[in-house]
Amino acid sequence: MELRNTDANVSVFRSVDWITIILYFVLVCAGAVSIYAASYDFDNASLFDLSEASGKQVLWIGLSLVLGCIILLLDYRIWETYAYPIYGAVIILLLVTIFVAPDIKGSRSWLVFGPVSLQPAEFGKFATALALAKLFDSYNFTLNAKMSNYFRALIIIFIPITMVLMQKETGSALVYLSLVFVLYREGMSGLVLWGVVCAITFFVVAVKFTTPLILGIPVGEFSVLVMIMLIFVLMLLFYCRDFPIARNVIIGFAGSGIIVTVLELCGVHVNGLVYLLSALGLGIAYVLLAMMRHRIQKFLITVAFAAVSVGFLFSVNYVFGHVLQPHQQTRIMVALGIVDDVRGVGYNVNQSKIAIGSGGVLGKGFLNGTQTKLKFVPEQHTDFIFCTIGEEEGFVGASAVLLVFLAFILRLISLAERQHSAFGRVYGYCLVSYLIFHLCINIGMVIGLCPVIGIPLPFFSYGGSALWGFTILLFIMLRLDAARKERRD
Amino acid sequence: MRKDYILEKRRYTISGFICLVVIVYIIRLFSLQVSEDKYKKNADSNAFLKKVIYPARGLMYDRNDKLLVFNQPAYDVMLIPKDVGDFDTLALCSALDITPEILAEKWAEMKNPRKNPGYSAYTPQKLMSHLSAEDYGRLSEKLYLFPGFFIQKRTVRQYSYNAASNILGNIREVSGSDLEKDRYYRAGDYTGDLGIEKSYEKHLRGEKGMEILMKDASGRIKGKYEGGRHDVSPISGRNLRLSIDIELQEYGEQLMKNKIGAIVAIEPSTGEVLAMVTSPGYDPSLLVGKDRGKHYAELVRDPYKPLYDRALQGMYPPGSTFKPTQGLIFLQEGIVNLKTQYPCYRGYVNGLRVGCHPHGSPIALKPALQTSCNAYFCWGLKNFIDKRGTKAYDQLTKWKDYLVSMGYGYPLGIDLPSERRGFIPNSKYYSDSFRGANWSANSIISIAIGQGEVLATPLQIANLCATIANRGYFFTPHVVKSITDTVIDSSYKQKHAPKIRREHYEAVAEGMRMAVLGGTCRAANIPGVEVCGKTGTAQNPHGKDHSAFMGFAPYHNPKIAVCVYVENAGYGAAFGVPIGRLMIEKYLKRTISPESKGVEERMINSNTIISSGVTKH
Predict the structure, then answer these.
(1) Taking a C-beta distance cutoff of 8 angstroms, is the pair A274, A260 a contact?
(2) Which of A48, A330, A462, B613 is geometrically suited to a Cys-Cys bond with A381, CB 3.0 to 4.6 A?
(3) Residue A449 to residue B28, Cβ atoms within 8 A
(4) CB B43 to CB A410 under 8 A?
(5) What is the dihedral of CA A131, A134, A138, A140, to 10 degrees?
(6) CATH of the domain at B406
(7) pLDDT digit string (tens) for B177-191?
(8) Residue B12 lies in a domain
(9) pTM exceeds 0.80 for this model
(10) In this predicted complex, what is the ipTM?
């Protein structure tokens, strides 16, 4: 038994994917340096001073490496075997946290043990990934086989979401939604992803452009309706290649459009909303009639798409105005550039844009950033760490960081794809999904393209929990990958 | 298997998605960092507090090195609107000792783009100026309570003498148009207004310095940027030494008390203005400090217009002080020689009548100057304008050219703002006013005795006097004698000579000497000083005649040329001559002799404003 283990150890370090480890190391080191720069005071402090953020981060990095080595040395099978127990334990931890965690800035997500604070939500990610991987790895499991499979997967995802939401950590909860990529990879219809993209687009357009301009209705709503019509026609064109239905619908839309324009020119006022809706309604009715004759399921999808889209459009304003909380509304409006709240919520984003923008092509040089150093950017060493990079290393440095992340994620996708078991693949895609979400949202908010959602930039943002959470996630993946040969043999 | 194969292809969708996002983000970074520089500017104003260090404004000394104008510290309350957080308004009000209404008003003024076109939330703005020392002390103690506020130290003017405000000028805050004209200024800066402060602004103001401090998000100063390597130290303004003799100036102002008018005294050999009095004047320290605006408005409303510098801007009929110019022209043109005599039957009687006072007749040039005979100069002008074989139009043009060369009709170019040109009619003017009808000497005869259309400023009259004292040349009058580290404008060192022979000037000077010895200016005869003078009694449509005098002394090698002009005060001998005499005596002897004390007392105590019958000007 002893002997076999040693053998396995040797083979692990030989077969582990060093490309990923190097990329990981690059990111982590760049992160430590950025934190040093971000929290560098002009009165100066050493990189390794443990009372400083950068010093602590170096300590966390060291501990992460130890943790990584331990994971690599452990048998890969324990993750498969104990996936559910680990998941259960973490869920209980999350639950406990809600009740015992002190209130820090309105959220109850930190467990405090003397000088050390821990954020269990960061560990929820890897536990959820394990549980999801275990589910998909169960015997003869295919996502599309029956609806209850979706149900089981969604349960696994939504339990931690609920827990984290109850800790008032909306950002961390939203991360789990990224697992939609995993479901997609495992067979969920692409229409869902498509629907999500459409919903976000419609939402942004409808909320952002509220000036009433075209035919008496807000530009946003008008554009969305036109987009729905276009997509409707495109879907018909795609699904009904063999039938003249799509052509008839196009002719109908175009014809009614011409009639409205002529009426408008003759001075007869037409309510644009009524026009667009009736045109769309007639189109849908026509397609439904056609469906009767051809009994094609795709028609139904197309019609449903159009109907749901219109419903969505008209509920957007309600949801935006009544369901979302005021601070969330403001964040969204700031991100969409509707309001320019430079002193309030927009302050962070505005300052971070100033910091990044002032970096120029080559940046101001290491430790020469004035914006981040002088504490103009809040959360500069945690959520807004990318500012420091943008300011001090400029366009070149910031782009390089993005490209390293891209390489890292693409590498992980190929690692996931080369797994022989559903467990390894699903687990890998979970990791990929989390990374994509964190990267998109974190950098998106720093450069003012996404609403401000407080989630860290993996490997960069200051904090032991996040770093450890991602390190555990990554090294389990590396361990699983290193073991794929053993599995096959 | 086929299904799995299709699902495997979905990795490309996911990879494509993340690639797309990264590309979009890089494009965004490019637009933020490379193609726009708006953020760079913002960042600078964010992190740096560019604190202006104001240079000390140049000092002014009189010709005897007496300090006239110097600086005293003043404190302005500044703030950077962006950095101003929530603060206790009442606490600020009590620290500044003002009511909340005043604070609100100042705040609105600061933000008003019309009053403060340079307003920006990112740059220092001035909330209040001229804090007293106590207010400064109280506020600086509590300043930590008001994030974004700071105190800017600068200097305001202080004056050693309550005199010469018309020459010195004062300083005011820059206006919107100043900001547009000169990029040196920032809102809240000071600039010279009126007088030397205005005309020598560029010399006096120096160069602002800059201290670059770093601050953090809450506006706390974190020290000098790179140890002050990029700081710019201010360059102090240049000191000016004026040609003014402040004692003479003060004495002149004292003599002119309760009178309306002006005195100009010039050193003939250099063109340096020794004194330039306008009356009524005002205390220069009124236009300093918090209440400047209020005082300024009061001065503007004052019916006697103290801000109006009569020495430079008052355009008066020169009256008989104009006669020497006529004599010079007639001599130069050969219309008369020193023996030529004209009859005076109590005036010029030739189809029309210009009155004169009793004296011997016929009369030659020198006695004519001595007695100020009107008839002589009318005959002279008649013979000149109506000279056989010439056209009145051409002769008048010649006449005008002589006068322009003597400094009339155009601003002389003194180094003070707003000098006016006076008026010398040209031929076209008369052709226009007579609407093409023929005109001759008789139509315009009153210009011969400095009446009619002719107007001159006291400065121009004094300049004529200096030219006669020099026997034929003058230097452009100026009030600044020298500037530290540089030289005054070369135009003030240049001799101007009218095209009239020296001997003619000699004759006129002799006539003026005779006027003092036994003519109209006898009251100007100071024992031991050879004074030359010419009175003037100018009729005017505003009431009583203006009393004028011009004179220089000593007769040989003159040291001072003076012009006195007192509005609505009667004969030239009544006020012009005695005041001129006292000015000359004061300057040449430094003290007033016992014989002159009585005159001095009478002059100081007389009030011509009441007796003139003119209440508003």
Answers:
(1) no
(2) A462
(3) yes
(4) no
(5) 100
(6) 3.40.710.10
(7) 887 788 788 777 888
(8) no
(9) no
(10) 0.84
